[in-house]
Amino acid sequence: MAGLASRCFRHAPWVIAVWLLALTGLVLAAQHSGAAYRDTVALPSADSTVASAMLPPGDQERVVVEAAGTIDTVRDRIEPLLGELAGLDHVTGVVSPYAAPELVSADRRIAVIAVSFDAPAEELGPEPAARLVDTARAVEGDGLTVGVSGQLAAMTVGAPNLGNAGIGLLAAALVLLITFGSIACVILPVVTAAVSVGSALAVVVVVSHVMTVPKISTEIAALLGLGVGVDYALFVLTRYRQGLREGLPAVEALERAAATSGRSVVFAGVTVCVSLAGMFTVGMAFLNGIAITSAISVALTMLAALTLLPALLRFGGMRTLPRHTASGGGWSWLARSVTRRPAPYAIVAVLVIAVLAAPALGLRLGMPSAGHDPPGSPTRVADTLLTEGFGPGANGQLVLVAERPDPAATTAVREIVAERASVGPPQGPVLTVTPRTAPDDPATAQLVSWLREVAGPGWHVGGAVAVQTDFSATVTSRLPLFLAAVVAISVLLLALVFRSVLIPLTAAVMNLLTAAATTGVVVAVFGGPIEPYLPVFLFAGLFGLSMDYEVFLISRIQEEWRRTGGTRTAIVEGLVSTGRTITAAALIMALVFAAFAFVDSRVVREAGVGLTAAVLLDAVVIRCLLVPAVMVRLGRANWWPSRRREHPAAPIPVPRDKAGRIH
């Protein structure tokens, strides 16, 4: 690492030019190719997939209209709309509500226009989706409200929005300025993160043409990349500043920073990527796309911290330590207090985690209905109108499909199903079932299971709600394997780095506590249901991100332990020297994550809130309180099987300068 950083420093113009050329080329390639996001979930063996294969091919959309009076008073506006919809590419049929009474509400205020396409939504793509929605909503106004429901319409909702990322970076810059009092400490980490994440997002767009990449991948990649990017650069920069404070020449200070903090950055980045790779154990292309694109973003930010940042330091004007330094007396007092009385601090930390984790007991996994889409979106408007006009289950219709046409059997099944849901007239071997509860109500998922039981062999249940139910069940069934894989990988990596048994095991336990508290915060803020893949992403992400602070803190403690032989002494010095950086880095990352808590996409908002809570809890409660308290209790056992000799009588150190900072 030291050699790489030194070469990048000496050849700074070339390194900066390569990064800028790469960024420019990737952005141009992304603009030329355009995005090809796919939100489809492939469940080849699911019952809903079998049912879908037995139905006529093609997507079915519903344009829902509401008149201020009745739909008869706006017929002169709706009938031209029927013609415009019929003229759209790939449209094979349009059913008028004036020709189908079942498509009109009882009070005749709300009506449905059924639109059929010649291919599934995932094959049609976003352009036909946009044309459908634009055509339908063009007639809106003057007492007429229009919404669109269906898989095509859903493609127009929650498009990637990275505007909040800039707000997060500005907030991070303010924290850097207050914490370090140096313009260079503000500009260098932010520029490093911005260049690397910009390159990563362009790669995501290009990669979307060769694999399944959901549209939320852009926001997730930006969220993770910006958060860890600023942190990685800050870790290296902090150690570089410490070298300058000790009077080292710039090159030597950078080489030492690369050999210590740079090594930690590599390990932390690799751990994040490996933890994200654990999502592959779920076995879904949808999640694989999120994992790969997020890992690309993290990997590029890690590379930028080790190459672009050293090059920028040559022109950053930071050859001597800035005059402004923050007092370290508070960290010195906290470190001595925790090591003297570890039990009370450990109890308080565990109680905080328990309180935050309590709502997780009410976790309910499932896909939220369109009623959770952004206000004013075509799908949310349609969901509201369908509920008002036809009941809560109107936007979650199911289909029962028989393998062989049998009128008598179809009639018998219809009579049974009518006891718990509304059933339309048979259309050959197909029955349309309208639940009496909302699509995301647990009773609707129970209805799907009940239909499969009572219909018996030869019948299959399909529809969007059935697909979502099967998706939730599949992810949930694979969660234990996923959790075990991520925990095992993290433990092994930490064991390799620290040559210890207890440090990786205690880190895994504490990460599990953080995961429980994070889940509790998300449930408390958003209620239910929570997307089944969100815990997968949050768990992989926070396990990887927590390694940033674990490695940064434990590496410094281990350095002091190797130097002094006293675990207690090493904990104090390690916490004092890293505490300010860890908390500043956590606050910066939290501000970046929090900026994504206000985007349109619900799952990105959930991820933003969850990761904000996770990094703050992990950095403040876990790393600064619980980890030191537990390590003090474990004593020399922390380092087993290391043969380094322990000195049990090692005194608790006192600050070495007036500011209370230990160098």
Automatic annotation (TrEMBL):
<feature type="transmembrane region" description="Helical">
    <location>
        <begin position="479"/>
        <end position="498"/>
    </location>
</feature>
<feature type="transmembrane region" description="Helical">
    <location>
        <begin position="162"/>
        <end position="180"/>
    </location>
</feature>
<feature type="transmembrane region" description="Helical">
    <location>
        <begin position="533"/>
        <end position="554"/>
    </location>
</feature>
<feature type="transmembrane region" description="Helical">
    <location>
        <begin position="220"/>
        <end position="238"/>
    </location>
</feature>
<dbReference type="InterPro" id="IPR050545">
    <property type="entry name" value="Mycobact_MmpL"/>
</dbReference>
<dbReference type="InterPro" id="IPR001036">
    <property type="entry name" value="Acrflvin-R"/>
</dbReference>
<dbReference type="GO" id="GO:0022857">
    <property type="term" value="F:transmembrane transporter activity"/>
</dbReference>
<keyword id="KW-0812">Transmembrane</keyword>
<dbReference type="GO" id="GO:0005886">
    <property type="term" value="C:plasma membrane"/>
</dbReference>
<dbReference type="Pfam" id="PF03176">
    <property type="entry name" value="MMPL"/>
</dbReference>
<feature type="domain" description="SSD">
    <location>
        <begin position="190"/>
        <end position="315"/>
    </location>
</feature>
<feature type="transmembrane region" description="Helical">
    <location>
        <begin position="292"/>
        <end position="313"/>
    </location>
</feature>
<feature type="transmembrane region" description="Helical">
    <location>
        <begin position="345"/>
        <end position="367"/>
    </location>
</feature>
<dbReference type="InterPro" id="IPR004869">
    <property type="entry name" value="MMPL_dom"/>
</dbReference>
<protein>
    <submittedName>
        <fullName>RND superfamily putative drug exporter</fullName>
    </submittedName>
</protein>
<keyword id="KW-0472">Membrane</keyword>
<feature type="transmembrane region" description="Helical">
    <location>
        <begin position="575"/>
        <end position="599"/>
    </location>
</feature>
<feature type="transmembrane region" description="Helical">
    <location>
        <begin position="187"/>
        <end position="208"/>
    </location>
</feature>
<comment type="similarity">
    <text>Belongs to the resistance-nodulation-cell division (RND) (TC 2.A.6) family. MmpL subfamily.</text>
</comment>
<feature type="transmembrane region" description="Helical">
    <location>
        <begin position="611"/>
        <end position="635"/>
    </location>
</feature>
<keyword id="KW-1133">Transmembrane helix</keyword>
<keyword id="KW-1003">Cell membrane</keyword>
<dbReference type="InterPro" id="IPR000731">
    <property type="entry name" value="SSD"/>
</dbReference>
<feature type="transmembrane region" description="Helical">
    <location>
        <begin position="265"/>
        <end position="286"/>
    </location>
</feature>
<feature type="transmembrane region" description="Helical">
    <location>
        <begin position="505"/>
        <end position="527"/>
    </location>
</feature>
